[in-house]
Amino acid sequence: MFAKLASAFLIASACIWGADAKPIPKNEILPRGSPISFDNWGGLSSFNNFDNFYGVDNFDSSVHFSQVVDTSTQVVCHTEAIEIIQQRLLVLQEMAKRIILEQVCEVETQTVVFQQFHASLGLFSNDLTHVSGH
């Protein structure tokens, strides 16, 4: 008997509450006040001059400062066996791992540098699939 009363009360209160409910206000995303810099991030010395390569607020190198269009005609691509391409890309992958693990000592910096590298590859993927418009 109690279960029937409790379930009836819950259903009735849900209906009343639902009828009285209002939409949740949408939080507007406000633009940042200042660019994000990783220079000396977290007080780690390994982040000294981090932004000197790509620039401040350009973590994944998505901001291109200059684009030069060469209108001359030349062959820029030739076909290679897929196995050779896969081997070369694997070598690049292992080199990236080795560079990050052997030349960056702090785990935090390793993580940020890897994410930066990964993000730039994502931009290249967007270029290949013509998502970026480049």
Automatic annotation (TrEMBL):
Keywords: Signal. Residues 1-21 form the signal peptide. The keyword Signal applies. This is Uncharacterized protein.
